[in-house]
Amino acid sequence: MPESADPTVMLLRSFRLPTMASEYEAIMQRAEKEGWSHRQVLRHLCESEAVDRGERRTARLLAESGLPEGKTLGSLDEGLLPEKVRRQLPALMEGGFTDRAVNVLAFGLPGRGKTHFLAALGRELILRHSKRVLFRPTFKLVGQLLAAKRDLRLEQELRKLDRYDALILDDIGYVQQSREEMEVLFTLLAERYERRSLLISSNLVFSQWDQIFKDPLTTMAAVDRLVHHSIILEFDGASRRVAKAAEKTPGKGKAEAKT
Fold it and tell me: What is the DSSP code (8-state) at residue 229?
Protein backbone atom coordinates (compact mmCIF):
# COMPACT_ATOMS: atom_id res chain seq x y z
CA MET A 1 0.00 0.00 0.00
CA PRO A 2 1.49 3.41 -0.95
CA GLU A 3 2.46 5.59 2.02
CA SER A 4 -0.06 8.27 1.04
CA ALA A 5 -2.90 5.71 1.12
CA ASP A 6 -1.97 4.12 4.48
CA PRO A 7 -4.76 5.04 6.94
CA THR A 8 -2.29 5.38 9.82
CA VAL A 9 -0.06 7.73 7.84
CA MET A 10 -3.07 9.79 6.80
CA LEU A 11 -4.15 10.06 10.45
CA LEU A 12 -0.66 11.11 11.55
CA ARG A 13 -0.62 13.82 8.92
CA SER A 14 -4.09 15.00 9.94
CA PHE A 15 -2.79 15.26 13.53
CA ARG A 16 0.08 17.40 12.21
CA LEU A 17 2.77 14.85 13.00
CA PRO A 18 4.72 14.97 9.71
CA THR A 19 7.90 13.28 10.95
CA MET A 20 6.00 10.36 12.44
CA ALA A 21 4.06 10.05 9.18
CA SER A 22 7.17 10.10 6.97
CA GLU A 23 9.06 7.58 9.14
CA TYR A 24 6.13 5.30 9.97
CA GLU A 25 6.60 2.69 7.23
CA ALA A 26 10.39 2.42 7.68
CA ILE A 27 10.03 2.16 11.45
CA MET A 28 7.37 -0.53 11.17
CA GLN A 29 9.56 -2.59 8.85
CA ARG A 30 12.52 -2.26 11.21
CA ALA A 31 10.33 -3.14 14.20
CA GLU A 32 9.12 -6.32 12.51
CA LYS A 33 12.69 -7.40 11.68
CA GLU A 34 14.08 -6.63 15.13
CA GLY A 35 11.06 -7.71 17.17
CA TRP A 36 10.29 -4.36 18.77
CA SER A 37 7.39 -4.09 21.19
CA HIS A 38 4.58 -1.65 20.49
CA ARG A 39 6.00 0.56 23.27
CA GLN A 40 9.38 0.71 21.50
CA VAL A 41 7.72 1.63 18.20
CA LEU A 42 5.65 4.38 19.77
CA ARG A 43 8.62 5.80 21.70
CA HIS A 44 10.86 5.84 18.62
CA LEU A 45 8.23 7.62 16.54
CA CYS A 46 7.54 10.16 19.29
CA GLU A 47 11.24 10.84 19.83
CA SER A 48 11.77 11.40 16.10
CA GLU A 49 8.85 13.83 16.00
CA ALA A 50 10.12 15.70 19.08
CA VAL A 51 13.67 16.08 17.70
CA ASP A 52 12.47 17.24 14.30
CA ARG A 53 9.93 19.60 15.83
CA GLY A 54 12.64 21.10 18.05
CA GLU A 55 14.91 21.66 15.05
CA ARG A 56 12.10 23.31 13.08
CA ARG A 57 11.28 25.57 16.03
CA THR A 58 14.93 26.59 16.43
CA ALA A 59 15.20 27.40 12.72
CA ARG A 60 12.01 29.45 12.91
CA LEU A 61 13.18 31.36 16.01
CA LEU A 62 16.53 32.16 14.39
CA ALA A 63 14.85 33.32 11.19
CA GLU A 64 12.54 35.74 13.00
CA SER A 65 15.17 36.99 15.48
CA GLY A 66 16.91 39.46 13.16
CA LEU A 67 20.24 38.51 14.75
CA PRO A 68 23.23 39.62 12.62
CA GLU A 69 24.99 36.84 10.76
CA GLY A 70 28.47 35.99 11.96
CA LYS A 71 28.11 37.45 15.47
CA THR A 72 28.04 34.08 17.21
CA LEU A 73 29.59 32.58 20.31
CA GLY A 74 32.02 30.66 18.10
CA SER A 75 33.33 33.85 16.51
CA LEU A 76 33.47 35.73 19.82
CA ASP A 77 37.05 35.96 21.08
CA GLU A 78 36.40 35.48 24.78
CA GLY A 79 40.04 36.22 25.53
CA LEU A 80 39.47 39.84 24.49
CA LEU A 81 36.49 40.31 26.78
CA PRO A 82 36.99 42.27 30.00
CA GLU A 83 37.56 39.82 32.86
CA LYS A 84 34.32 40.67 34.69
CA VAL A 85 32.29 40.22 31.50
CA ARG A 86 34.01 36.91 30.77
CA ARG A 87 33.17 35.64 34.25
CA GLN A 88 29.48 36.50 33.81
CA LEU A 89 29.09 34.84 30.40
CA PRO A 90 28.44 31.24 31.61
CA ALA A 91 25.67 32.35 33.98
CA LEU A 92 24.06 34.50 31.28
CA MET A 93 24.03 31.60 28.83
CA GLU A 94 22.02 29.55 31.34
CA GLY A 95 19.16 31.88 30.40
CA GLY A 96 17.60 32.16 33.85
CA PHE A 97 17.74 35.96 33.78
CA THR A 98 14.99 36.04 31.14
CA ASP A 99 12.68 34.03 33.40
CA ARG A 100 13.17 36.72 36.08
CA ALA A 101 12.76 39.62 33.61
CA VAL A 102 16.30 40.84 34.38
CA ASN A 103 17.88 43.31 31.94
CA VAL A 104 21.42 43.10 30.55
CA LEU A 105 23.01 46.51 29.98
CA ALA A 106 26.29 46.70 28.03
CA PHE A 107 28.25 49.96 28.16
CA GLY A 108 31.41 50.99 26.35
CA LEU A 109 32.88 53.11 23.59
CA PRO A 110 32.35 52.08 19.94
CA GLY A 111 34.22 49.00 18.74
CA ARG A 112 34.52 47.29 22.13
CA GLY A 113 32.42 44.23 21.23
CA LYS A 114 29.09 45.07 22.90
CA THR A 115 26.94 44.25 19.88
CA HIS A 116 28.77 40.99 19.15
CA PHE A 117 28.44 39.89 22.77
CA LEU A 118 24.69 40.59 23.01
CA ALA A 119 24.00 39.05 19.59
CA ALA A 120 25.95 35.91 20.52
CA LEU A 121 24.09 35.72 23.84
CA GLY A 122 20.75 36.10 22.05
CA ARG A 123 21.63 33.29 19.65
CA GLU A 124 22.55 30.99 22.55
CA LEU A 125 19.22 31.75 24.26
CA ILE A 126 17.53 30.39 21.14
CA LEU A 127 19.79 27.40 20.56
CA ARG A 128 19.98 26.25 24.17
CA HIS A 129 16.66 27.32 25.64
CA SER A 130 14.27 27.96 22.71
CA LYS A 131 13.73 31.53 23.89
CA ARG A 132 12.10 34.04 21.57
CA VAL A 133 14.64 36.78 20.86
CA LEU A 134 14.43 39.90 18.69
CA PHE A 135 17.49 41.97 17.71
CA ARG A 136 16.94 45.51 16.41
CA PRO A 137 19.06 48.64 16.07
CA THR A 138 17.26 51.00 18.46
CA PHE A 139 16.65 53.69 15.86
CA LYS A 140 14.88 51.19 13.59
CA LEU A 141 12.65 49.88 16.36
CA VAL A 142 11.80 53.42 17.45
CA GLY A 143 10.88 54.26 13.85
CA GLN A 144 8.66 51.17 13.79
CA LEU A 145 6.92 52.31 16.99
CA LEU A 146 6.49 55.86 15.70
CA ALA A 147 4.82 54.55 12.53
CA ALA A 148 2.53 52.38 14.63
CA LYS A 149 1.62 55.35 16.83
CA ARG A 150 0.73 57.47 13.78
CA ASP A 151 -1.49 54.64 12.53
CA LEU A 152 -3.08 54.25 15.99
CA ARG A 153 -1.53 50.76 16.28
CA LEU A 154 0.97 51.36 19.09
CA GLU A 155 -0.75 49.04 21.56
CA GLN A 156 -0.87 46.23 19.00
CA GLU A 157 2.81 46.74 18.17
CA LEU A 158 3.78 46.63 21.84
CA ARG A 159 1.80 43.41 22.26
CA LYS A 160 3.75 41.86 19.37
CA LEU A 161 7.05 42.82 21.01
CA ASP A 162 5.80 41.44 24.31
CA ARG A 163 5.93 37.93 22.83
CA TYR A 164 9.73 38.04 22.90
CA ASP A 165 11.50 36.78 26.02
CA ALA A 166 14.49 38.98 25.21
CA LEU A 167 14.48 42.18 23.15
CA ILE A 168 17.95 43.38 22.11
CA LEU A 169 18.18 47.14 21.54
CA ASP A 170 21.49 47.91 19.86
CA ASP A 171 23.08 51.37 20.16
CA ILE A 172 20.41 53.09 22.23
CA GLY A 173 22.60 56.21 22.35
CA TYR A 174 21.84 57.03 18.71
CA VAL A 175 18.19 57.84 19.47
CA GLN A 176 18.30 61.52 20.33
CA GLN A 177 16.41 63.35 17.63
CA SER A 178 12.91 64.24 18.85
CA ARG A 179 10.56 64.18 21.83
CA GLU A 180 8.32 61.77 19.92
CA GLU A 181 11.16 59.26 19.72
CA MET A 182 11.79 59.65 23.44
CA GLU A 183 8.12 59.09 24.26
CA VAL A 184 7.70 55.81 22.34
CA LEU A 185 11.05 54.51 23.61
CA PHE A 186 10.09 55.29 27.20
CA THR A 187 6.71 53.61 26.64
CA LEU A 188 8.49 50.45 25.46
CA LEU A 189 10.80 50.43 28.51
CA ALA A 190 7.85 50.94 30.85
CA GLU A 191 5.81 48.19 29.20
CA ARG A 192 8.57 45.60 29.65
CA TYR A 193 9.48 46.67 33.20
CA GLU A 194 9.50 43.64 35.54
CA ARG A 195 7.82 41.55 32.82
CA ARG A 196 10.29 40.94 29.98
CA SER A 197 14.05 41.25 29.57
CA LEU A 198 15.81 43.97 27.63
CA LEU A 199 19.39 43.60 26.39
CA ILE A 200 20.75 47.06 25.61
CA SER A 201 24.07 48.31 24.26
CA SER A 202 25.02 51.94 24.74
CA ASN A 203 27.97 54.19 24.01
CA LEU A 204 26.58 56.65 26.55
CA VAL A 205 26.81 56.16 30.31
CA PHE A 206 23.67 56.82 32.35
CA SER A 207 24.75 60.37 33.20
CA GLN A 208 24.56 61.19 29.46
CA TRP A 209 21.12 59.69 28.85
CA ASP A 210 19.48 63.12 29.01
CA GLN A 211 20.69 63.31 25.39
CA ILE A 212 18.19 60.53 24.64
CA PHE A 213 15.23 61.39 26.83
CA LYS A 214 15.66 65.20 26.86
CA ASP A 215 13.86 65.66 30.17
CA PRO A 216 15.75 64.98 33.47
CA LEU A 217 12.72 63.41 35.18
CA THR A 218 12.04 61.10 32.22
CA THR A 219 15.71 60.16 32.08
CA MET A 220 15.68 59.32 35.79
CA ALA A 221 12.51 57.25 35.42
CA ALA A 222 13.91 55.33 32.43
CA VAL A 223 17.23 54.58 34.15
CA ASP A 224 15.45 53.56 37.35
CA ARG A 225 13.30 51.01 35.52
CA LEU A 226 16.24 49.52 33.65
CA VAL A 227 18.61 49.32 36.61
CA HIS A 228 16.11 47.97 39.14
CA HIS A 229 16.57 44.39 37.90
CA SER A 230 19.71 44.38 35.79
CA ILE A 231 23.15 43.00 35.05
CA ILE A 232 25.56 45.75 34.01
CA LEU A 233 28.51 44.89 31.75
CA GLU A 234 31.35 47.34 31.13
CA PHE A 235 33.30 46.93 27.91
CA ASP A 236 36.55 48.83 28.26
CA GLY A 237 39.90 48.41 26.59
CA ALA A 238 40.99 49.12 23.03
CA SER A 239 38.71 49.20 20.01
CA ARG A 240 38.42 45.82 18.26
CA ARG A 241 37.85 47.52 14.91
CA VAL A 242 41.05 49.55 15.17
CA ALA A 243 42.99 46.41 16.13
CA LYS A 244 41.59 44.46 13.17
CA ALA A 245 42.37 47.30 10.79
CA ALA A 246 45.95 47.37 12.09
CA GLU A 247 46.30 43.62 11.50
CA LYS A 248 45.22 44.04 7.88
CA THR A 249 47.69 46.86 7.22
CA PRO A 250 51.24 45.48 6.62
CA GLY A 251 53.85 47.21 8.72
CA LYS A 252 51.34 49.38 10.55
CA GLY A 253 52.17 47.93 13.97
CA LYS A 254 55.92 48.49 13.42
CA ALA A 255 55.38 52.03 12.20
CA GLU A 256 53.25 52.84 15.23
CA ALA A 257 55.85 51.34 17.54
CA LYS A 258 58.51 53.73 16.18
CA THR A 259 56.35 56.83 16.67
Answer: T
Contact 76, 116 (CB under 8 A): yes
N-terminal to C-terminal alpha carbon distance within the chain:
82
The count of other CB atoms within 10 Å of the CB of residue 159 is 11
Q: Please choose, from the candidates 235, 215, 218, 240, the residue with its C-alpha nearest in 3D space to the C-alpha of residue 88.
A: 235
Please state, in angstroms and rounded to a whole number, the distance separating the CA atoms of residues 106 and 234. 6
Give tens-digit pLDDT for 32-87: 999 999 899 999 899 988 989 989 999 999 999 999 999 999 999 988 899 999 99
Q: Model confidence over 178-202: pLDDT tens digits? A: 888 899 999 999 999 999 999 999 9
Q: Is the pTM of this model over 0.85?
A: no
Q: Nearest CA to 112 among 243, 231, 211, 249?
A: 243
Q: Where in the chain is the domain with CATH 3.40.50.300?
A: 71-244
CA 253 to chain centre: 36
Give 237's DSSP letter: S
DSSP secondary structure letters along 26-82: HHHHHHHHHT--HHHHHHHHHHHHHHHHHHHHHHHHHHHH-PPTT-SSTT--GGGS-
Strand partners, 73: none
According to CATH, the topology of domain 71-244 is Rossmann fold (3.40.50)
